[in-house]
From TrEMBL:
<dbReference type="Pfam" id="PF13621">
    <property type="entry name" value="Cupin_8"/>
</dbReference>
<feature type="domain" description="JmjC">
    <location>
        <begin position="184"/>
        <end position="348"/>
    </location>
</feature>
<dbReference type="InterPro" id="IPR041667">
    <property type="entry name" value="Cupin_8"/>
</dbReference>
<protein>
    <recommendedName>
        <fullName>JmjC domain-containing protein</fullName>
    </recommendedName>
</protein>
<dbReference type="InterPro" id="IPR003347">
    <property type="entry name" value="JmjC_dom"/>
</dbReference>
Amino acid sequence: MPKVFSVNSKWVWHMSKTAPSRRYMSGNVSFEGNKVPQLAHLPKEHTTVEIFREQLFGSKKPTVFGNDHGSPAPLLPALDKWFSKDLRNASTTLSEYFCQFRDAMVPYEIYAPTPAQKESLALFRDYLEKEQTQDKIITRSWDSCFTGPADGQDFFQLHAPLHLFTEVLKFNDVVRKKGLQGVSLYIAQCSIAELPQALQEDIPTPEIVVHAGKGDIYGSSIWLGITPTYTPLHRDPNPNLFCQLSGTKVVRLMAPRAGDWLFRQIQAELQRSGNSRIRTDEMMQGEERYKLHQAVWEAGPDSPVPPGTYEVVLNPGDAMFIPTHYWHSVKSVGESGDLNASVNWWFR
């Protein structure tokens, strides 16, 4: 048996006004009690493809589509087909329909910076060993990710069956009842084209993506994770339509110049240079992740986020348009362990 992550291994021992201990509050108070301006939902009469193209897409204006105000998200069958209510726990879980595609291979990310989180990875491996219906593909994928030394590593990636996600959900439910930490798992930036055909048909390309620009679609992804999930500040090479399917996400958005300035400041502090146009592995752990989070989400009165920073709260059925060159950082919020899902398209 390969050397795997164990409980006793050395791995286990290894600009706004934000109050990190406070939860998201609705109404006029933005996420965690800060004073970052929030983008308002677009009026429903302005959400047609024609008006979007003429007034927003070409002029590169960030746009929020409310669930009941012309959002394309409610037209996606996945919104209803992929999720079901768990009445026992008053939460949302994956539907039986979605779980039938258990063998589909998808990319996963795991972030485990603390000893307790690293211990949860070892406990999950023990859990897999004890499962009567042990999935050898899941076990092999897990072991290949956590084999060998990984001193100082907090961020891990692997390809495994979709069934891994449901196994982690079950495991987390067990260990959290014992007061232990669950595994933080994220199916991140999984291409829609890699999904089974039936799931692809549940997330058809919205009309706005097809007709607002030239009709060129450069990529599309699903994002299915266990709260909390987090993507540091970055910018995309193409316009982005982002639809929320389950749970709540908060987006911090910065105008190009504001984001450029902040990113250069952080790179200078780190004594490095970086290509910030895409979501990279380097920004997902270590000092760069910490500094990006601190600057965007934990800034204090003496170091506020730059002017031109906005916040968007996305609930199921909401959507937003992020123009090219607009910087953004994304968090899922809610109870730890909650299901969170989104889908997006990059287009021109």
